[in-house]
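Justification of resources, computational component.

The compute hours requested in this renewal are based largely on the per-chain cost of generating structure records like the one below. Each record pairs the submitted sequence with a full structure-token output. That output is archived, and it is also reused by downstream analysis tasks.
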Amino acid sequence: MSETGLLPIKINETSRTPIYDQIESQVKTLIVSGKLPAGTALPSIRKLAASLSCSVITTRRAYQNLEQHGYIKTLQGKGTFVAEINVAEQDEQKQEAVAEALQEAARLGKNYQYTDEELMDWFRKILKEENESD
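The structure output for this chain reads:
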């Protein structure tokens, strides 16, 4: 995995998820979580591609998808910036992302034949560890 100093993005080269999708997903999370507020300048496509050691085409595709969905905007001659997202939409995006992650975890746990109680115990343990690390 590599991480860029420009944005806290980690690329997993062994993942089945395409790199452009990994970039798009992580930038979207940074925006929706408020870690990248509206108006924040983003690195150029070339700079981001170089820092992630991936192609310009890959980063361009991620930026195009983000712009198409209203997360970023490109101003000719000025750069690419985080777009203004309304609070209701931001809350909905957060809930969707967390629900999706929990559904995937539940599916995986069930596939490995863990009980609901075992999965809940793990979740409580993980939450406790996260709270202690804050």
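The helical segments are 19-32, 45-52, 56-68, 87-111, 116-133. The radius of gyration is 17 Å.
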